[in-house]
Amino acid sequence: MVKKPTTWINHRPVNSKADVVLVDEAHLLWTQGKQSWKSGWQLDEIRKRAKVTVIVFDQKQILRSEQHIDSEHIATMFLSANCVVKLEDQFRIDASDETIKWIENFVEGSIDAIPYDNKYDLKIFEDPLKMYHEIIHKSKDQQNGLSRMLATFDWEYKQGKSGYGKNDKWTVIADNLELPWNLETRTSKDKQRNRGLSWAESDYSINEIGSTFTIQGFDLNYAGLILGPSVIYRDGKVSFDSSASANKNAIKKRNGKDHAVEHLKNELNVLIKRGVHGLFLYAVDSELQKALLDAQNN
Description:
single chain; 10 helices
């Protein structure tokens, strides 16, 4: 049986426990009440209704205030578990250890010289339009396939309302590139033709830019990532400007506390690790762009 958490909890009485419940991406569960969920942490409610609960949890993929959980609470969760298995290796990115380390260091704030890697294509672009054309080229290649454009959520989007870009679409604008956000160009024919497929697998999505909302949990062969104005480079390190983010769910306070920088860092962590065979980067922030190009030239 496969269910969404709220639906499963609401239809499973506490006195009728399931034998085993597996929760994938447990870091995405809500940890506070909201309009469609009136209780507290969904994981607590799931555990009440299961004899055995197995969760897959990654603190570095918490993206929204409704999902936020402090380190002390996470430590308590681990201490209360009968068994904890820490996964040390990743299996998405087919790259050398040096390249994987470069990507992880970048998320943590440092930019080193980009290592040579004959397996993985890590490339900095000066022109976002050229990067998009390269992604189109990769997507048409049967060997490379499934390549898409992504961006940090730094351009506005309001569901159900007209946008400011071409044809009133909510649009990502970076230098000479202008493309609509995910699901903005989909027509009824597109829905019918791509029924059952994710955003990344759908043919029309090559003309759009994906966000964490459509790409988290999915793999791409090549990812073209636009680092918006919320990702900056100051005083020799990568940092985050929450005032430049349009992701209201990530930057709003939780119980009076500001966790925006942590959530934006996690957003970058999710987006930058989508590509199995390659990662293309373009940064809107001029200082960050220069630091990335220097890293490539070195």
